[in-house]
Design a protein that fits this description.
Chain lengths: ~220, ~220
DNA sequence: TTAAGGTTTTAGGTAAGCCTTAAAATAAAC
DNA sequence: GTTTATTTTAAGGCTTACCTAAAACCTTAA
């Protein structure tokens, strides 16, 4: 009766660090705090606790990163999360943009035995409905080599591979516009002064802000056939 | 980040009261405390909080019962619990005696939308794998009219209908002896001095203590054809 | 009717996770 | 090198849910 809620916060911190420190660099505590909806002071406290537990490394004034232990733990949570997302979409027919939040709750309440039985039931899917890779049971992650939409150049063509990191607000926005993994797109033009990217998807052109574009990953289409 | 664990304790208390007060009588706080693995002081404190919230009624020195609100809330948790059990057994092929504990964690992390989608996916099952009825979405419970094994007389025949209340220890014990819902049984004799019940199931005779017998419910076979 | 036994309250504590406000340390930018 | 912004510490608090120990209180049965 104490253990459960105990883990929950820890798991959220580890998962978030994992998301923020995707490029192997340090995740600033301020960013952590913001994503978790917590004051920077509280986040700093918690980071200390997690450092003591050997789950995080903290470089003062720079940010935090996961230790090997923390990484494995985070990957296990992410695995559970994405497997549940697959189930919720493919079997329960719940909406693509809602399952992230549902899975966020289930992920902390799922035994390893359940996780692995679920993986087998689902036939060991490789990605979640939002395109993100599902870590293997031992915590290994498939490296992805896609490009953020925000890193493409006007004129580029590509196909959406995944949305990352996910949040309900973002997914709602994207779902309403059919901006989903698998969709081909064309980067028509970039408005000046850090303006939006004009992106043609599914026959329509959308103005996407820089911030949103950084959450959309693509596989560029090669002009060379 | 606060709400989740918040609900968890409340839900466990309500669920437990519902289990203990099956016969419409009051559940003593001491029994509540024992089942929850908590001191009576803590249980008393929590009962006060739940009374203030209008979920429980407390008759001092007697025990507690659920208000209509509390009842509905408890039934909703139980519904989620039993639906998960069905899924875990029927689709993930997890062991009958283990799924109770797995479901105990999932039940507090499941949105209503997920619950109802799951119910539809499972084709609205009426009972959990341990034979207990699954409350309907609006909190209605099917009345069961079966008899505790401890209330049968030597010589009686019957069929096991359900195990209630469940606990992993009990389920492990029963699973190892094939004492499962659907099994026919014969009450051979009752040992004197509150001794065990000699019960013939699946070709073998088992000595079951009074306490265990109170957890096994049966549908007596009528001699009158 | 009184003593025994169970129940409840009171008092005093713990731990995790959060909060705020304010001051100090450091990094970055000019 | 000074200013500005960010980070970290420090101090004091809150809530939930648990604990022990001791006192007060009901109920019941001898």
């Amino acid at each position: 009766m104490k253990h459960e809620s105990f883990n929950e916060s820890i798991e959220m911190y580890l998962k978030t660090v994992s998301e923020l420190a995707a490029g192997n660099d340090l995740a600033p505590i301020s960013a952590l705090a913001e994503r978790l909806g917590v004051s920077t002071v509280s986040a700093t406290e918690m980071v200390h606790r997690l450092c003591e537990k050997g789950l995080l490394d903290h470089t003062p004034y720079k940010g935090v990163s996961l230790t090997e232990d923390g990484r494995r733990r985070a990957q296990r949570v992410i695995r559970r999360h994405r497997l549940w997302e697959c189930f919720l979409v493919d079997y329960l027919n719940l909406p693509w943009e809602k399952v992230h939040d549902y899975a966020c709750r289930l992920e902390h309440a799922t035994d390893t035995a359940v996780t692995e039985a679920l993986a087998a039931f689902l036939n060991n899917p490789q990605t979640c409905p939002h395109g993100n890779p599902i870590p293997s049971a031992d915590g290994a992650v498939t490296a992805v080599r896609d490009t953020a939409l925000s890193d493409l150049q006007p004129g580029d063509h590509g196909t959406i591979t995944r949305i990352h990191p996910e949040s309900e607000l973002l997914l709602d926005y994207l779902a309403a516009r059919h901006i989903l993994p698998g969709q081909p797109l064309e980067f028509e033009e970039l408005a000046p002064f850090n303006g939006p990217l004009m992106i043609k998807i599914d026959g329509e052109t959308h103005a996407l802000g820089q911030e949103i574009a950084a959450h959309i990953f693509t596989e560029p289409a090669h002009d060379t056939l």
